[in-house]
Amino acid sequence: MHRLVQIFRNSQFFRDNIIYLIGSIAVGFLNYLYYPVLGRMLSPNAFGEVQTLVTLFLQISIFLSVLGLVTVNIVANYKDESARNAVVLEFEKLGFAVSIALLFATIVFQSVLKHFLRFSSSLPFIILMISVVTTVPFTFRGAFIRGKQKFGVSAISNLVVAGAKLLFSVLLVVVGLGTAGAIGGLVLAQAVACGYVAWWALKLGLKRNPIAKRRALPDLKVLMPELRYGALVLVGSLVITLQYSIDIIIVKHYFDAHTAGLYAGIASVARIIFFLTGSIALVLMPSVRMEHSDEHNRKLLYKSLLLFALLTVPTLLFFVGFPKFVVGVLMGSSYEPMAHLLPELGLAICVVAILNLFVSYYLALRRYGIAGVVVIGGLATFGLMVWHHQSPAAVVQGLLIGSLAMVGLLVLWLSASKFLRKGTEEWRGS
Q1: pTM for this one?
Q2: Coil, helix or strand for 177?
């Protein structure tokens, strides 16, 4: 025990993790509080709409998450500050262009979305897309800060967003705006936090070259060298995001609004595990660098897995031992009829969180083979849930089996890569 304490004390990586973890726990608490608070203020039908919109936000904004992760990798590895800033700012411009295009597409197809997802109004979809636009500057300035490994600043910015989102959403729901108000709070929160991250990014060196030519559209010549890597990050991030959230969309599509709302409550509880461990992957990615030795990078991965186990094992055991109590305390008694799903769903989310850690590690090293692993595993999971969705329990089983299959594919890929690398080295040495 004493040795473990010494390791934590002497490691900058562990200190960064602890700083970001403390901030992320506070952020996760506020983000999580958003669900039970609104779950108690809204009817199950309305809360099901809110959870569906939040899930859609995760799917739609995946391109921003991708570009943000690419930005982190650029900031961590580029030596030329002028070239670094030029690429980061062009990526931000690209983010604005895509998000505005998506906003217009949503306005055009709002009726289709309303009927497909059985919403009472199409207005929340438009507000959702406005929130994506306001997320753009926060994403890129925040990614720049993480790439500079200023995890305390990053944690505070996330805390501002989480706290403001909860506050504004509650106020808007109280005045009678319902689902639209719950999502409108996110727009206001992003606007508040943008000023904070923009100031810090400027202070840390993100500045536009005063002699550079100003363009309304992104300069693809500047972005092209990083777009291939961006495609890799897109595939990895998209599949992982879908992996831990697609079950909500499946249930919302195949079941009635009340059942979908109850399931959304249980899913919110299970995702505590992902919220708790997400910070570990975010610290790992800018810490792993291609210029470092394999041994150095692997040590960072092992330290991350140790932190992961310390956080997830007690949480998962609590889910297994007291599912009804946990659901009742966090979501209210109206969600208890589905509490029996929590242990298996919690285990499934735990497996997805492990996958997220490994995917982040290999994305940081630009190992393109990881894309094939997650695509095949993601398709298998989606196929299982579509084929076997007779009940919410069946959807959970599909998620768990598909996620375990992805782990198996990851092991096979790593084993094959090691075998091929060893064979190549022996051939060169002969």
Answers
A1: 0.70
A2: coil
